[in-house]
Amino acid sequence: GNSVTQMEGPVTLSEEAFLTINCTYTATGYPSLFWYVQYPGEGLQLLLKATKADDKGSNKGFEATYRKETTSFHLEKGSVQVSDSAVYFCALRSDKFYFGSGTKLNVKP
Amino acid sequence: NAGVTQTPKFQVLKTGQSMTLQCAQDMNHEYMSWYRQDPGMGLRLIHYSVGAGITDQGEVPNGYNVSRSTTEDFPLRLLSAAPSQTSVYFCASSRLAGGGDTQYFGPGTRLTVL
């Protein structure tokens, strides 16, 4: 079956620190992979995506590379800001969308 | 282009009451879905639809009904509300064709069942 596993939070970092949020997946076939971000009181919005192996998605300084050999799609950012504080969801799309449980990021000034 | 809209934003029900959460999209998307979000549980799929007249169950369908009479609208009905249905509900839509197409989410409905 299809599933997504991401690291549990919360993750607390100081401003300008390096961020990694791990995401691994199980899927049949060749899914597309996504990272969504949810700010407090809002719905989810797309952060980045990758549609095939070795693709790198990037947006707003965030990056993730589709690694088929390790079935991973880890989210990284070189220097986080207070405004990046949010919940981040890893997801895959095959027949349907499958979401991880979310990782809350707190960035302190 | 309003995207995905949901009404109401907040709702309080008593146990046993019924209600309908409304969802509409103006992007002509074939695929629509309903999720519930509970603390520490991420998003769980309730029902989804791949086009008008076609619906299917997700991970947690019990206690909920859906219908899809038009491409634009996908209402979620709570038949007899229970406290376990207290949650935040999100509607989402996407194109059906093309695996790389993202889902667009509505702002959510926060439901409390007393």
Describe this structure in words.
The complex is a heterodimer of chains A (109) and B (114). Chain A is mainly beta and 109 residues long. Chain A has strands spanning 3-6, 11-14, 19-21, 23-26, 32-38, 44-50, 56-59, 62-65, 75-77, 86-93, 97-99, 103-108. Chain A has no helices and twelve strands. Chain B has 114 residues and is an all-beta fold. Chain B has no helices and eleven strands. In chain B, the strands form two sheets. In chain B, strands 2, 4, 5, 6, 9, 10 and 11 form a seven-stranded mixed sheet that branches. In chain B, strands 1-3-8-7 form a four-stranded antiparallel sheet, with no helix packed on it. The chains are: A mainly beta (109), B mainly beta (114).
Note the main sheet of chain B.
Answer: 7 strands, mixed
Overall 3D geometry of chain A? globular
Tell me about the biggest sheet of chain A?
A: 6 strands, mixed
Low-confidence segments of chain B, ≥5 residues, pLDDT <50? none
Give the count of helical stretches of chain A.
0
Q: What is the radius of gyration of chain B computed over CA atoms, rounded to a whole number of angstroms? A: 13 Å
Strand content of chain B: over 45%
Largest interchain contact:
A-B, 21 and 23 residues
Number of strands of chain B: 11
- Total of helices of chain B: 0
Distance between the termini of chain A: 41 Å
Q: Percentage of helical residues of chain B?
A: under 10%
> Would you tell me the structural class of the helices and strands of chain A?
mainly beta
Distance between the termini of chain B: 36 Å
Tell how many strands the DSSP assignment of chain A holds: 12
Q: Which structural class should the secondary elements of chain B be placed in?
A: mainly beta
